[in-house]
Amino acid sequence: MYIYRRVVVKIGSNVLTRKDGTLDVTRMSALVDQLAELHKAGLELILVSSGAVAAGRSEIQASRKLGQVEQRQLYSAIGQAILINKYYDLFRDHNIVCGQILTTKENFADRRHYLNQKNCMEVMLENKVIPIVNENDTVSVTELMFTDNDELSGLIAGMMNAELLLILSNVDGIYKGHPDDPQSELIREILPKQELRQFISTDRSATGRGGMRTKYNIASKLAEEGIRVIIANGKIENIIPDLLSPKPRNKHSLFLPAEKTSAIKKWIAHSEGFAKGEVHINQGCAFALMQNQASLLPVGIERIGGEFEKGDIVRVVDHEGRQIGVGKIRCDSKAARSLIGSKGQKALIHYDYLYLE
Ligand code: GLU
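That is the input. Now the predicted structure with glutamic acid docked in place:
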């Protein structure tokens, strides 16, 4: 018996590759067997799989010394083809069809692209096809990149309204201290708003781009939005069905969810990276926003920073210069400046389009 209906499973490069960097097909096959079992039980699964760059790297010897960006482009172009072919064959052995979604950070910034992606995955799920998502590493370079696939999986889980995001890596969960240090303690449960950031190691993994700190950050943010997150070891036998059952036996870290937030707020929460300007507000206004589920009115505004258009995402900054949230603004920066401090005006950011941190 499984307690979820829609689940996003993220598999890290370090789960899918061997020590020598080649794709670990035995592991992939074991993971696909587990996913197939869940699929047959009627669960809607979305897979976010890394491993393209790692798979491509071991496939080709470049003819000259390549820069970092070129390497990532070349290896991911080759490796993604290898990866998806492998998944396709493995799922086909179970009579399951999978499909490929390659995306970029920009697709999450634009509401239309965002909805197009969402609709695409909805129609795949409706037809019992398992979407396999990865970043389009061939075109998303440097500042346009997701921090890592953990960030991508968080966005996908939010967008698809999943009940659970399961992040599989090569350690048992989040530790207080470095995962390799035997003294470090596994954190089994994290409550909403519980702050453990200072204990988490900032080291990154050798094969993928992620690390424990980003996993922690993404997981807390999602849990805040009402989605459960589990971080566990993808190398343990039969780990996925176990963790989706009512009483998991294997070690893991669980982030307990707070109440659900609306879909639009979720999108805004994740759009922070695209904020075009700032709305600086006074103390009274900050207080009202935090306490009363209020909209942001011109009367509480002290200053407008940067240039933006109507409908852009802006940061909301309090009187001490701290960012307290992000929202979708109803007018451009020129109009916003002309309204500073004025009473009796319509809200500049409506409550429904305001995400407070
Ligand atoms: N998209 C990259 C890949 O498939 C992985 C990024 C990450 O490691 O998080 O190789």
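The chain is about 35% helix and 20% strand.
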